[in-house]
Structure formats: C-alpha cells, structure tokens
Write a structure and sequence with these properties.
Elements lengths: L1 H19 L4 H14 L16 E2 L1 H5 L4 H21 L6 E5 L9 E4 L4 E4 L2 H4 L3 H20 L12 H18 L3 H16 L11 H10 L15 H12 L4 H15 L15
Parallel strand pairs: 2-4
Antiparallel strand pairs: 1-2, 3-4
Helix pairs in contact: 4-6, 6-7, 8-9, 8-11, 10-11
Length: about 280
C-alpha cells in the first residue's frame, strides 16, 4: 500500500513538473508566432531563436584584448554570474557581447528570445561602473518578468506603452532597492541628470532624479561599498570642487562626478558588498 502510494505521488509530481515547466526557447518562439498570427500582427520582425544581434563570446574577446580590458571583461562575467544566482531564476540567462551598438537600446538589454543579456560596446565606453552594475540588475529583473509572465514575451512593438513603462519602472525599482550604497545610487542619479540636460533619456517609465532621491534618502549614509568606503562623503565634494575651480558648466560638473566613480574603482565587484536581494 505504501509503495503504491509512493508511485502515485511520484507520478503526480512528474505530471505537475511537466505542466508547470518553463517551455523551451523553440516552444516559446512558436507560441509567440501563433499568438501574433491569431491577432493579425506582423510576424516578420520575430527573430528565429538562434538569431539576434551578432555577438562575441567572452572567451573570444578575452583572447584578443589587452590585459586591462580582459580584467574588466572577467569582472563582468564574474559579477553577472553572482547577480544571476542571487536573482534565483528558474532558467539560465546567458551573457553575450554585441559586435555593434544599437540606436534603440542603452548599455545592454535582455533578449527573451534566447534568454540572454546582450552587452553593447557602449557599456564599456559611455557608462560608469556604478551605472553598469545598475543596468545588469535592471536587465535581470526583465528576465524575472519573463519568468513570471507569458505575455511579457510578446514583441514590445505590440504591447501598450503603459505596459512597457511599467516593466521599465519595475526593473529600475528592483535595481535601486537592491543597491544600498548611497554613492552608487547618487552616481546613477547624476547620470540621469546629465542625460536629461542633453534631452537624451527623459523617458517615461524610467527612474527620474526624484525617484533616485527617495532611495538615497532611505539608505544609511555610512553603508558604503568597498569602492566608495574609503572616500565616503568626500567622493562628490572632491568632484564638485574640481569642477567649480575650473568654472565648469553644470554638465561638466556631472561628467566629472561620473569620471570620479571610475577613478575610485573600475570593477563592479568592488560594489557588491552592500547589495541586498529581497525575493
């Protein structure tokens, strides 16, 4: 009797796991294709599951770059794996380096079609280290949204603006609530202010200066990450003072603050000590 009950229970577990298992990438793609056709949407923009941006692997890049760049790439790989484990996703998320930049994306983006975070070259050239960490957390939250919702997998073109903006705000909210170092948050806030000055990213749905300020006010000012703890309150004063002495414009002051972040440490791993993940 006990043995029979065990086999029945085991069968139920197997059936349940099959019912609730995440579909394969091809199954997801076929499902989205059917949904598009049913709604009369254009399926020509749907990429095959094995096609996306042209990408390099980390090993390929590291074998052909100088030691300082290899160090930053290894930092990216290590930090990405750490964040991925902390996020506790039910499927693996890959990491790819795109050969070319995109006009429509930021430093990186999450591709639901091949379940990967794809890094653009601008990730290394136009963003400070604290911004990079924030952007990885942001994209991994998109992976979590993918895990939670079948609807999220549909092509962004055919989703309402309100849905898109809600997704982006949630991703920014997750990143900001995970980072507890006030300086890391402040760097991202300053980057937003700098973008707003250039009329680049005053995008609806993404965090504004006021959104960042709520989190900055909520954290302990003494809770500084390894990169910033030796500088603390002097971090921004130093950058502002240098810019003021040179009679720099507001934009130049902000740029100097961003540059100071990398001068302190160009490695994301030095900013992990104050991260707090809440499921």
């Amino acid at each position: 009797m006990i043995q029979k009950l065990f086999h029945v229970t085991l069968s139920l577990v197997c059936i349940t796991s099959l019912l609730f298992a995440l579909p394969s990438q091809q199954e997801e793609h076929d499902e989205i294709n059917r949904e598009f056709k049913k709604r009369g949407w254009d399926t020509s923009r749907l990429l095959p599951v094995d096609k996306c941006y042209q990408c390099y692997t980390l090993d390929d890049i590291c074998s052909r770059t100088n030691p300082s760049n290899a160090k930053r790439l290894q930092d990216l790989a290590d930090v990405f794996e750490y964040l991925k484990k902390k996020r506790k996703l039910s499927f693996n998320v890959g990491l790819k380096l795109c050969k070319h930049n995109s006009q429509n994306e930021g430093p990186c983006f999450y591709s639901s079609y091949d379940r990967s975070v794809q890094i653009f070259p601008t990730f290394f050239t136009q963003y400070s280290t604290s911004e990079k960490l924030f952007s990885l957390l942001h994209e991994l939250e998109h992976a979590k949204q993918h895990e939670r919702s079948t609807a999220w997998r549909c092509y962004k073109k055919n989703r309402s603006q309100a849905e898109l903006m809600q997704d982006e705000y949630e991703a920014d909210d997750f990143a900001a609530s995970t980072i507890k170092c006030p300086v890391c948050l402040k760097v991202n806030q300053v980057a937003t202010l700098l973008s707003d000055l250039g009329n680049k990213s005053a995008k609806k749905g993404y965090f504004s200066r006021k959104d960042y300020q709520k989190y900055i006010d909520a954290v302990d000012n003494s809770c500084l990450c390894e990169a910033h703890k030796n500088n603390g309150a002097q971090f921004f004063k130093k950058a502002y003072r240098k810019a003021t002495i040179s009679k720099a414009s507001t934009a130049d002051i902000f740029k100097d603050v961003i540059n100071e972040d990398d001068r302190v440490s160009s490695l994301m791993k030095d900013r992990l000590s104050t991260l707090r993940f809440i499921d």
